[in-house]
């Protein structure tokens, strides 16, 4: 065990923050750490938008299921996939011909780059004693968020991130048993149901305690509820309209 591993293992999402501000210098430190993340061919195909405008925050919070922490956290960031900059870089050179930007491969490159950078930012913030929560619900209204933030072609919002000093200690959420996610040489389908059943039992205990006995649902039930109806089916056409994930 070392400090870094202790820090990684202490993560819990924070949705309630103290008034203590995050300074400009701290934010710069967090973003510098984000920029040190590995990047596919060094394309750095992401951007992050720091939202300080209160009206924009309120509007995004409303679109994202009225999650109060979006307008109340000291810092709110929106992480975006960004191939626009690459198109500009490409066009700076003579006789460019066609740039193959909008492929599914490049969409994966951009989303992975953004996620790696964001997670570096999360760890950096947590190492400074702050807490974070990711906000995927900004994709409830992906097109509206995109317009609000003035995103150009070849970009897309991916998720938000609230950062600030924790005003709660909600308790760590258990994870799947390691053998469920770690395979050796070949994918192991044997035992998956047993692993899920184990995890269901762990999660039922956890949820029961966390909700004071009000709920006791297991993980598989949550996943079933999540997957029994499709969600955000407008994303595909939004991405295609932005020139992304097309071929
Ligand atoms: C991409 C992404 C999107 C998320 N979106 C939301 C969100 O909109 N609202 C929220 O409260 N938590 C959100 N979360 C947080 C997850 O619910 C949380 O990480 C998960 O339940 C595990 O809990 P833990 O982070 O406390 O360990 C998101 C997490 C990720 C990685």
UniProtKB/TrEMBL annotation:
Enzyme class, UniProt record, top EC level: oxidoreductase
Identification of the protein by name: Oxygen-insensitive NADPH nitroreductase
Sorted UniProt keywords: Flavoprotein, FMN, NADP, Oxidoreductase
Similarity annotation: Belongs to the flavin oxidoreductase frp family.
InterPro entries in the cross-refs: Flavin_OxRdtase_Frp, Nitroreductase, Nitroreductase-like
UniProt source species: Paenibacillus agricola
GO terms for MF: FMN reductase (NADPH) activity
Domain Nitroreductase: 10-165
Taxonomic placement: Bacteria, Bacillati, Bacillota, Bacilli, Bacillales
Primary gene name: nfsA
Domain of life: Bacteria
Enzyme Commission designation: 1.5.1.38
């Amino acid at each position: 065990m070392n400090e870094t591993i202790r820090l990684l293992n202490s993560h819990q999402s924070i949705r309630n923050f103290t008034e203590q501000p995050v300074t400009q210098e701290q934010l710069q430190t967090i973003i510098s750490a984000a920029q040190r993340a590995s990047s596919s061919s060094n394309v750095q195909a992401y951007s992050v938008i720091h939202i300080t405008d209160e009206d924009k925050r309120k509007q995004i919070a409303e679109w994202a299921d009225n999650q109060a922490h979006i307008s109340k956290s000291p810092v709110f960031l929106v992480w975006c996939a960004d191939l626009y900059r690459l198109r500009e870089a490409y066009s700076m050179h003579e006789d460019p011909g066609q740039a193959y930007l909008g492929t599914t491969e490049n969409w994966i490159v951009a989303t992975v780059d953004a996620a790696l950078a964001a997670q570096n930012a999360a760890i950096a913030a947590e190492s400074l004693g702050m807490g974070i929560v990711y906000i995927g619900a900004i994709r409830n209204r992906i097109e509206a968020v995109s317009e609000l933030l003035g995103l150009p072609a070849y970009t897309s919002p991916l998720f938000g991130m609230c950062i600030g000093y924790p005003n709660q200690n909600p308790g760590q959420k258990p994870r799947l048993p390691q053998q469920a996610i770690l395979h050796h040489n070949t994918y192991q389908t044997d035992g998956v149901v047993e692993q899920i059943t184990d995890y269901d039992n762990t999660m039922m205990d956890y949820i029961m305690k966390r909700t004071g006995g009000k709920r006791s649902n297991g993980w598989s039930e949550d996943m079933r509820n999540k997957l029994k109806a499709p969600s955000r089916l407008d994303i595909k056409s939004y991405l295609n309209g932005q020139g992304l994930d097309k071929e």
